[in-house]
Amino acid sequence: MMGPRRKSTKTQNLDEGLNDPLSQEEPKDYMNELSHEVLCHIFRYLPMQDIMCMECLSRKLREAVTLYLRVVKVVDLCASRWWEYMPSGFTDSSFLMLLKKMPDLEQLYGLHPRYLERRRVRGCEAFSIPGVLEALQACPNLIGVETSHLELVEAIWNYMPQVHILGKFRNRNGAFPIPPENKLTIPAAAKIQTLHLVGVNVPEIPCVSMLRHLYLKWVRLTKPQPFKDFLCVSLRTFVMRNCAGPTNSLKYVPLVTGLASARNLEHLELVRVPFLGGLIQHVVEDSWRSGGFRNLHTIVFGACKNALEVDLGYLIITAARRLHEVRIQPSLTKDGVFSALKMAELEFPQFETLHLGYVDEFLLQCKMSHNELVKYGLADVIENPGIITDIGMKAVNEVFTSIKYLVIYNCPHLHNPNNWITDHSRWSRLVDLTLVRCHAVKLDSFCQFIEMLPSLEFISLDQMFREPPKGCARVGLSAGTGIGVSSALVSNQNSNNDNDNNNNNNNHQNNNDANIPAHNDEDAAPIPQQQHQPEDIHGMDRVEEENNVVPNQMEVQAAVDAEQGSSGPSQPPRPGEGDEEQAGPSGVPSAVKKPPVEVLDSDSEDEEEQEKAGGRAQPPGPSRPPYTEPDDSRPKSSSSHAPAPHSSKGKTPLRRRGPPPQEHSCEKGCQVTSEQIKADMKAATEAPERISGASAGAGQVPGAGAYVGSIRWREDADSQEEAGQGGGSPDEGLAGVEGPEDQAAFGADSRHATGLPHSGAAAEDGMEDEQQNRCCGAGLPRRPITRSCSRLSAVPLVSEAELSKPKPRVTVKRKRTADKSTSTSDPVTEDDHVQVLTLKSNNLVGITLTNCGITDLVLRDCPKMMFVHATRCRVLKYLKVENAHIVNRFDYAQCKKMDMEQVLDQILRMPPERNRIIYMRPMQQINSLALEKMLFSGPYPYHIAIIHEFSNPPNARNKVRVRSWMDTIANISQELIKYEFFPEATRTEEDVQKYPNYPWGRDIYTLEGTVDGAPYTMMTDFPWLRTLRAAEPNSYARYDFEDDESTTIYAPRRKGQLSADICMETIGEEISERRQARRGVFQRLVVVFIHYCDARGQPVDDDYI
């Protein structure tokens, strides 16, 4: 047996090795050590452009590239990015040389040249269609080519008919109006499976047996009979949108019969196709036994001029087994369609998506007039809104029991969504609800409907619950129409009117301007009304609201004083300030001294029915519950349960109810002479002295309780913003108020639900409100009021020491003054109509509001809610969060009257169960110092960051990046608290009082920089962030990420700080310092991201919102 081999060692002098220059070898070239086979295998994963570059690196790599090209069968010139163009720089000769190196090439993808010459130019090297064809013909085994060039694909069909067109052919130069140079002739034997044409002139659609997907958008069919040979038996998708074809409906008969012969047709979309009415019904009757239209899963009808209900109904019935989605044009969105389907007693086991009132996005976004569209060849169609009613919506869910996604566009006859739910229509699977421009839907009913949907997760509301127009109701005009029906006597709740907006047209442009209140279109036909309480109309009695008589004002003031328990005199608020709109240029409202005229304006045929149902139709309490604390001990009004004798909302004949008036008739109710106007103006100046003197000793007046009960506390609280008149130090206000309608945006309000800091003045006299606060239990010192930078108007704030303490609410009744006149140029001052959207849903995840007229959003019980988006909601002001603890994203963009202070306070008072990011784009100037003081000194158990972004147009880079790293910062703190016994910080009322001055017990620092040339500033007390930003990159660093600290606030991937565990290795020293100093940390973070691009009051267009 052999023993183990003895290891031989060779000793070498150390000095020899150091002095020998040959021992220090150069780095090895490992690529050249690889075999050709291995290199060819690597090339399979590289883009063609990189492979061609390797030819220049070494001889071995050049040999490997040559071998690879010799055997390659599939080449992609765009590296799988079909939307990009192929590398530039090719000429006819270089492209031919490349393809000659690939003799086995079978499939060439990504042949998307940016520009091709139509023909060769002698003596000039260019890239031309003949040159490309010559190169393709040099590949004997070529099977297919992918391209997007119209002239090139036509040349391939003509000169290389055996070559298939791979992938999806999508031309890239489509436009409308259709460019005359975009032409394509489709041969009958074309070997293509997917053809997407946009903005192309096509003579006809022939018989293409291989075609599976045909998409025609803005296509002009030039032959008089473009479908006479149409027969595509393999067709699975047929889309024809806004094409310029024949106007004769009979010429579409071959199209429909050809579609019926495509037994595998799954997606049928016809938009603005003027086929013959009833044609589809007859074709379905003839072909359904042989499988025609049986496999459809998507049916879309939009603006088809002659389409009948039976056409749609027969398609739905035939495809019931596999149907997934139906989009129905407005003319077919009616009760009868679903009643007939209900009678058919079919099951739709796979149905999920229904779109009612479907209008193609091109028609919604196009700025061309109807006549211009017709001039360019589109069918002559004018769509009216859908006429489906609540009865039809009941039938919708009885037919489609498993519906998950519901979209409704511009259906003005829908009123009460809660009536859609019955024993046979429970909408139990509805997940996503989108309502657009359904102006007659009642807000209270909608809130009840949401509460009754067990599976609802997402809500999207666009142009819903719009605000009533200001001033029209005062001057005898129906809402903006100029029709002189006596609308001065009509309620102000036109946004929820039963017969509102029936004549709205789909061709109208959407109102996307956050600064412009939406218009109201009046209905032509009256519809029976329901009675409403005075709270639902104006928030106060009609007599008090429309006839501001001085004795009544004194009675109201006396009743208010009695209710509040305050004995000092008070004066009325100054008109023209606060959260109000000016409908006239002068902006000086005056008190009208006319006796009240009790007039009922209702539908004549419905009056008796309403009289009988008067008590039944009214809920026993106020329609809008005030945001009261559980221990609120305000006396309740006795009139909240009393029926209102004159609250109906009809439009046509006006009738009196009760005793006739003494002086004025109904016809003279809206007519004011010049003498009366002069008297009114004089009374406006005299009224404050009379009222202040009379209310001091008025006492409780019999019957005044009716006024007190019917005036909303919300409007009264608004008057506090106008009442403070003391002196003060400047530069402490939260917002620079731009005008009268902006003053409520940041003037703090006494009705904030969870003890939001009040805005100082609580009574109508600046000297008396301290006494009232003390008698109500406040006992708090007044903070000096400030002057806004733009108008020098008073914006009182709470004393610094008590900034975050809740105060008891003091109710002050406001008296609205308005001129009733025959001219819209006369001054009218009105409050925004209060509309509260209350959400209560166990599964709701998020809500998106766009152009909605609500003033308050209440999250009552939404345990799974995660995001709230509000865009261009002009009068949205307040947020109340009762139970929605995991909402982590709030977006408020271009909401002109948003009360930022109140919204932030509500969010920051939520239990710290999630990190939260709040994105805001205010439309007024912000006092950043006051905002920072409010957030950092408040009782908020979060680490807070306020980011001021000044990019314009807005840049989303910082906003998006913050979300990627704020959770990592919070995770570090959570790990330390849970597993390292690190002290946890607290933020109680005692802590707030302990640190009354900067930095309010927090470690606050500032980061500044620029992103794409725009500055940003971040003021924060986030722990760990400064250390992590300053650290050197570790071994996990990734440099393929485009951001670093020069382009964004913090780029953790550039540092390699990918998780909390990795980060904790970097910040060990800071952890020790904090532990020794016993400075605790919070577990959660809040980022307030404020974008200032809209701060001048003009909204900036942004595709990201």
Describe the structure.
The model is unreliable at 7-11, 478-672 and 688-821 (pLDDT under 50). α25 links the parallel β29 and β30 (916-921). The longest helix has 23 residues, at 674-696. This protein has a 22-stranded mixed beta sheet, sandwiched between helices. It has a three-stranded parallel beta sheet with strand order 24-26-28. With 1105 residues, it is an alpha/beta fold. The protein is built from 32 helices and 35 strands.
Radius of gyration: 36 Å
The number of helical elements comes to 32
Q: How many beta-strand runs?
A: 35
Q: What would the principal axes of the Cα set say about the shape?
A: globular
What is the typical, i.e. mean, pLDDT?
74
* Secondary structure category: alpha/beta
Largest sheet features: 22 strands, mixed
Q: Regions with pLDDT < 50 over 5+ consecutive residues?
A: 7-11, 478-672, 688-821
Helix content: 25-40%
Straight-line N-to-C gap: 84 Å
**Strand fraction band?**
5-15%
Q: What attributes does this structure have?
A:
single chain; 1105 residues; alpha/beta; 22-stranded mixed sheet; three-stranded parallel sheet; 32 helices; 35 strands; 26% helix
What's the arrangement of secondary structure elements?
Elements: H1 14-19, H2 30-33, H3 36-43, H4 48-54, H5 59-71, E1 74-76, H6 92-100, E2 107-111, H7 129-137, E3 144-147, H8 150-159, E4 164-170, E5 192-198, E6 201-202, E7 213-217, E8 220-221, E9 237-241, H9 253-261, E10 267-271, H10 279-287, E11 298-302, H11 309-318, E12 325-328, H12 335-344, E13 353-356, H13 361-365, H14 370-375, H15 390-399, E14 405-409, E15 432-436, H16 443-451, E16 458-462, H17 542-546, H18 550-564, E17 580-582, E18 599-601, H19 607-612, E19 654-656, H20 674-696, H21 704-710, H22 713-723, E20 735-736, H23 743-746, H24 769-775, E21 786-787, E22 794-795, E23 829-831, E24 836-840, E25 846-850, E26 856-861, E27 867-871, E28 878-881, E29 889-893, H25 900-908, E30 916-921, E31 925-926, H26 928-937, E32 943-949, H27 957-979, H28 989-994, E33 1005-1011, E34 1014-1020, H29 1025-1030, H30 1052-1055, H31 1060-1066, H32 1068-1077, E35 1085-1091
Parallel strand pairs: 1-2, 2-3, 3-4, 4-5, 5-7, 6-8, 7-9, 9-10, 10-11, 11-12, 12-13, 13-14, 14-15, 15-16, 16-25, 24-26, 25-27, 26-28, 27-29, 29-30, 30-35, 32-35
Antiparallel strand pairs: 17-23, 18-19, 20-31, 21-22, 32-34, 33-34
Helix pairs in contact: 3-5, 6-7, 9-10, 10-11, 11-12, 12-15, 18-20, 18-21, 27-31
